[in-house]
Amino acid sequence: MIEKWRTAALRCPDSRGRLSSTAVVFLVLACHRESIPTYKAEPAQFARRVTAEGVLKSTKATPVTAPMNVPMSLRIASIADDGALVKKDDVVVTFDPSDFQKDLIGGQEDRQSVGNKVTKTATLASVTSINLKRDARQAQDELIAAKQFKFDDAGVFSRYQRIESEIDQTLAGDKKEHAENVLGVRETLSKADRDLLTIEEKKAGLKIRNAEQGLHSLELRAPYDGILVLQRDWRGDIPRVGNNVWPGQPLGEIPDLHSMKAEVFVLEADAAGLGVGQKASVTLESNPFVLARDFEECLCSISASLFCSIAPSRRS
Predict the structure, then answer these.
(1) Which label site among 29, 77, 115, 312 has the fewest CB atoms less than 10 Å from its CB?
(2) CATH number 3.90.190.20 is the correct assignment for the domain at 61-96+219-254
(3) Over its length of 316 residues, how does the chain's per-residue pLDDT go in tens digits?
């Protein structure tokens, strides 16, 4: 009994030590809880930023097109490089003048040939008219003579002479009528020939006028300072020297750099909340340290992907 009590008495101090160690641990934990950082939640303005990439374009661009007053295709003789800086009145595109020079020479030759034909036709018509009028006058004289000297006296003239006199009188009248009719037909034919030659002369004049217009439209000049942007076809090719172009065909454009707009593409997941009138800041890739501001409006439309056009109020 005594040994057991001693054993119990010896274990009691260990139990007290454990209790005191536990109390120290709780005290330390309590002190550690007071040092936990806290954050006070307050209402504030929430800003959501959407990043988009795109390109800068001008709000106004002057198209560079082939001349409209030329009724035939044009061959490019020279053209400025794509993206070249041009000044006002600089030659951007020139066309080959060989076809127009050939048409001009051909038109002048046609006009000269028509002039010769007109002279020939007028001379022949004049000669024919003179001859027919002479025949008509001769027939008239014969008719007058036949009527004046009649062989109708049966006691003096034979029956054969009387019949011959009547035949001569009728023949003279018919010859006069025939000459007058032929004269009218010849005048009508001569007028028709002159009309046909007039048409040929107009065709020659039109050919010459088109050639002269083409020769005066061989150069395209820049309307103002800017950058030449050549237009690509469905294969992605730009106009080159030797290509044939039709009147009015677009070759490129020269943007007006005084007013620009940004066209950016936004992911559909990031497009929620975008609308007209929201401000935007634009950073240029060519100069990241320059920040373009004062953008006024954002026009968005959603199809398969979202396309957003941000137009600035002025150039920055």
Answers:
(1) 29
(2) no
(3) 333 333 333 344 444 444 444 544 444 444 545 567 777 788 877 777 778 888 877 888 889 999 988 888 899 999 999 888 899 889 999 999 998 999 999 999 999 998 898 888 888 888 888 888 888 788 777 777 767 766 666 666 677 777 777 777 787 777 878 888 888 888 888 888 888 989 999 999 999 998 998 899 899 999 888 889 898 888 888 999 999 999 989 999 998 877 777 788 888 777 777 777 777 777 777 766 655 544 444 444 443 334 444 444 444 3
Strand partners, 250: 65
Is residue 93 within 8 Å of 76, Cβ to Cβ? Answer: yes
Cα distance between residue 175 and residue 32, in whole Å: 147
Contacts of 113 (CB under 8 A, 6+ apart): none
Separation of alpha carbons 297 and 275, rounded Å = 8
Token digits of residue 74? 């044009």
DSSP helix, strand, coil percent of the chain (3-state; round to 5): 45, 20, 35
C-beta atoms surrounding 161 within 10 Å: 13
User: Is the C-alpha dihedral spanning 9, 13, 16, 22 positive or negative?
Assistant: negative
The answer regarding whether domain 100-215 maps to CATH 3.30.1890 reads no
Are 312 and 261 within 8 A, CB to CB?
Answer: yes
DSSP H or E run through 111: helix 98-148
**CA–CA distance from 136 to each of 127, 141, 181, 188, 287 (Å)?**
14, 9, 10, 18, 98
Block residue for tokens 């036709």: 121
What pTM was computed for the model? 0.56
Q: Which of 309, 308, 286 is nearest to 83 (CA)?
A: 286
Closest by CA position to 76, among listed 253, 249, 234:
249
Structure tokens at 100: 């127009």
Give me the residue spans of the domains in the chain: 61-96+219-254, 100-215
Is 220:93 a contact under the CB 8 Å cutoff?
Answer: yes
